[in-house]
């Protein structure tokens, strides 16, 4: 069977919110400390404590929004411990993540500086699990109040005269689990209470995000929407692609077995069903789709790299991760009527990271390259794509589509078509029928691919998996034919 799709260049399906390309950075393992923050006195070149090599690489991704400080850490984080002179900041134990000492050197001011340097929006997650309403209220006041107030005065004393602009604020994290083991009814009441004090000061308008469901916990979404939809702007959802059993063994990040390959990609595609079902519940309470679904944690979760701290969640990143990322983006785009933000877990050194560091060294992962290749979709208009025929990737009596296609149009009329090809052995020819356009004069392509299913970058071979020009593209009238090698992510740009 062939692979054929029609791309309707004149059928527009709404904007792809740039925030779908958001990130997440938690005080977990070496994400914040070493991965981002090295301190002003470090030998590693830095800007006010933030390492320059990582900063420069991240800037190239046009990151729209960054979530912080957790994750599970958020519901144990007391923000007041992380402001003021660094030498006087309280030290705590990061009980969730490896039991290491957290010196609070990276706090609110440092995070806001990072966002300024990345030119992205901050998304702060507040503490409901072990924090008070007053603490949450005062954090928002500290960050955003423009005038005379106890918290604004304290901020000024700590060196920041102007308030920051803060839009995205999460009221708790995983409150069904590490954020308090609550029932949805109880959390819905707490959400109503806490969010009351998340105030809008002056011109600053907060977009309130309620802690959402885990995977297929549809009852959580049902209860939250029923009891509190009118008081929220977004409701979150967490879904990790885990090929094995979470507790008994998730599988190795660099495991070459085909079984693991197939299961991973099948599970990545499963987020489509999850979004559809959670959105259907949301539709009952919010048919206008005012409340967004915010997938503020997603990505692969494998066993940690051998010999590393199990609490640090450090894993390698292969061409398989690149495909997981590409498929997620396609699915998020397809749900752009409800999904308005997504934050991959996590930015550096943790889970499906963009960047891995080893002291002063840094490498970019295959996932980084997908974020870079796909950034052209940010803020673009999604185009209608009809699949006419599609080859299946069959394994062990099960099958998933081998090729997945998505397209968008930029404001200047440039059309970008992304393709994910998950088959680990066969190449696939794909014919794209371009409708609704007079003439295509130019096509350029880039491709990320590999010869081995566990191909990854190392500190010795940092460019083993990196995008290349894609030459196997033929344009004949309105038909575009491409030959995709096994295990590849491609981006075609039409002008
Ligand atoms: O991203 C790692 C952890 O996964 C987060 O802290 C938590 O929210 C989730 O369970």
Oligomer: single chain
Number of strands: 26
Structural class: alpha/beta
Count of helix runs: 9
Provide the residue-averaged pLDDT: 97
Largest sheet: number of strands, sense, barrel closure: 10 strands, mixed
**What share of the residues does DSSP label as strand, in percent?**
25-35%
Structural shape? globular
CA-CA gap between termini? 30 Å
- Over all CA atoms, what is the radius of gyration? 22 Å
Major sheet strand order: 23-22-26-20-19-16-1-21-25-24
List the ligand species: alpha-L-arabinofuranose
Runs in which pLDDT lies below 50 for 5 or more consecutive residues are: none
Helix content: 10-25%
Summarize the structure in short.
The protein is α/β, with parallel strands linked by helices. The chain contains nine helices and 26 strands.
């Amino acid at each position: 069977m062939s692979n054929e799709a029609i791309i309707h260049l004149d059928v527009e399906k709404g904007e792809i919110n740039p925030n779908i390309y958001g990130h997440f950075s938690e005080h977990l393992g070496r994400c914040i400390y070493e991965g981002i923050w090295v301190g002003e006195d470090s030998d590693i070149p830095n800007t006010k404590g933030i390492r320059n090599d990582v900063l420069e690489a991240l800037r190239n991704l046009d990151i729209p929004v960054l979530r912080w400080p957790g994750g599970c850490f958020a519901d144990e984080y007391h923000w007041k411990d992380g402001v003021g002179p660094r030498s006087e900041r309280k030290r705590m134990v990061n009980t969730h993540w490896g039991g290491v000492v957290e010196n609070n050197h990276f706090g609110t001011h440092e995070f806001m500086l990072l966002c300024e340097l990345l030119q992205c929006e901050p998304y702060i997650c507040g503490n409901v699990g072990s924090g008070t309403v007053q603490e949450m209220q005062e954090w928002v006041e500290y960050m955003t109040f423009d005038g005379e107030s106890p918290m604004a005065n304290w901020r000024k004393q700590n060196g920041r005269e102007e308030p920051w602009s803060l839009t995205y604020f999460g009221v708790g994290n995983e409150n069904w689990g590490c954020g308090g083991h609550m029932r949805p009814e109880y959390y819905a009441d707490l959400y109503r209470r806490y969010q009351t004090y998340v105030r809008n000061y002056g011109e600053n308008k907060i977009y309130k995000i309620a802690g959402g469901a885990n995977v297929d916990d549809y009852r959580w979404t049902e209860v939250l929407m029923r009891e509190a939809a009118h008081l929220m702007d977004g409701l979150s959802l967490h879904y990790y692609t885990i090929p094995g059993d979470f507790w008994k063994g998730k599988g190795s990040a660099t495991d070459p077995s085909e079984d693991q390959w197939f299961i991973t990609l099948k599970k990545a595609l499963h987020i489509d069903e999850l979004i559809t079902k959670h959105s259907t519940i949301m539709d009952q309470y919010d048919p206008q789709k005012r409340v967004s679904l915010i997938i503020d944690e997603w990505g692969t979760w494998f066993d940690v790299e051998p010999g590393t701290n199990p609490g640090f969640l450090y894993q390698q990143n292969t061409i398989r991760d690149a495909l997981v990322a590409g498929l997620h983006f396609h699915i998020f785009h397809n749900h752009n009527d409800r999904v308005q933000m997504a934050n991959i877990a996590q930015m550096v050194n943790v889970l499906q990271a963009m960047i891995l560091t080893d002291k002063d060294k840094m490498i970019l992962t295959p996932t980084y390259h997908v974020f870079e290749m796909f950034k052209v979709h940010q803020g673009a208009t999604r185009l209608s794509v009809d699949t006419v025929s599609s080859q299946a990737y069959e394994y062990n009596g099960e099958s998933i589509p081998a090729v997945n296609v998505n397209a968008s149009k930029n404001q200047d009329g440039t059309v970008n078509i992304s393709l994910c090809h998950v088959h680990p052995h066969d190449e696939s020819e794909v014919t794209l029928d371009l409708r609704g356009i007079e003439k295509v004069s130019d096509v350029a392509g880039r491709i990320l691919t590999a010869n081995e299913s566990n191909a990854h970058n190392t500190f010795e071979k940092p460019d083993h998996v990196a995008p290349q020009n894609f030459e196997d593209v033929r344009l004949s009238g309105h038909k575009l034919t491409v030959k995709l090698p096994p295990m590849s992510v491609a981006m075609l740009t039409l002008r």
